[in-house]
Amino acid sequence: MQKAFISKNNPFNEHPSQGEQFSFTYLYPKYWIIWVFLSLTLLIAYLPARIRAVMGTALGKLLFKFSNSKREITRKNLSMTFKNLDDKGINNQSKLFFKHLGHMYINLPLLWWRSDKYLQQLIIKSDLHLIDEILDNKQSVILLAPHTLSLDFGGRALSKFNLLSIYKPFKNNLMNWFIGKSRSKATDKVIVYPRNKNSFKSIIKKMKKPCVLYLLADEDISLDDSIFTDFFDTQKATLKAGEIDKF
Q1: For the chain, domain boundaries
Q2: Could you give the CA distance from residue 99 to residue 181 in angstroms, rounded to a whole number?
Q3: d(CA 97, CA 104)
Q4: Region label for 141, one of left (φ > 0), alpha (ψ between -120 and 50) or beta (otherwise)
Q5: N or C: which end of the chain has fewer CB within 10 A?
């Protein structure tokens, strides 16, 4: 069972040793191909922005051409969500989505390898003073965000705050640890919990101390845990907020 990722500077009196830790089993041969992949991402993270942009656009075109299943899912979602779009409009929007998807894949290594100081210079932020005002009033903030391609950059933009969040564990243990550590750098003030009911109870308790909960709650998990609501021209299942209401 996965544990939380706890940064060294978290203000919630949780020691990092209580969270997810590196395991020497990650050095076993079955993980070697992952280490090779991560080594390549290290090189990508230090490439100039122009080169990354070209790579991202090229990758997006390849994904659009060869990822038949994802392309059809994208077209179906667009046709249901924006019913005024004709086939040409759906095709153009699909290509644009895959272009952004390619850029996202190429830029993700920045979050994994570059420092928080460097990343803050890249991220455009606005209206953070609104969060400061609430925290100064000794209250916590629930920042509800959609699952966009840049969701991890959104979390990184909040690194100056006392922060709580939830993650969906990866099936690969090494990737789960590696990406989890990138979301809880030594300079951060954060705890990132695995997604389960016990984690949410812990989060609610910790929110008695002024902090920000970065919550991405638009996934369709199950009928029991979801509710359908309007989403542009259709309806979409999203998570219930019953626990938040109780809080």
Answers
A1: 5-20+126-246, 26-118
A2: 28
A3: 10
A4: beta
A5: N
Determine the Cα angle at 207 with ends 211 and 134, to 5°: 45
**Mean per-residue pLDDT, 217-232:** 68
Q: What is the H or E stretch that residue 34 is in?
A: helix 32-45
Task: Report the DSSP beta bridge partners of residue 238.
Answer: 227
Instruction: Tell me which amino acid residue 15 is.
Output: H
Alpha-carbon radius of gyration of the chain: 20
Beta bridge partners of 143: 214
46 vs 52: CA distance, rounded Å: 9
For the chain, the average pLDDT equals 90
Q: Which residues pair with 191 in a beta bridge?
A: 6, 164
**Token digits for 161?**
């705050």
DSSP code, position 25: G
CA distance 207 to 203: 6
Averaged over 96-104, what is the pLDDT?
Answer: 96
The pTM (predicted TM-score) of the whole model is 0.86
Sign for the pseudo-dihedral over CA of 243, 244, 245, 247: positive
Distance of CA 106 to the CA centre of its chain: 15
At a CB cut-off of 8 Å and minimum separation 6, what does 77 contact? none
Sheet with 190-194: strands ordered across? 5-6, 190-194, 163-167, 212-216, 141-145
3-state class (DSSP) for residue 58? helix
> What is the DSSP pairing of strand 5-6 with strand 163-167?
unpaired
Distances (CA, A) of 18 to 6, 13, 89, 118, 172: 8, 11, 50, 28, 21
Decide if 113 contacts 45 (C-beta within 8 A): yes
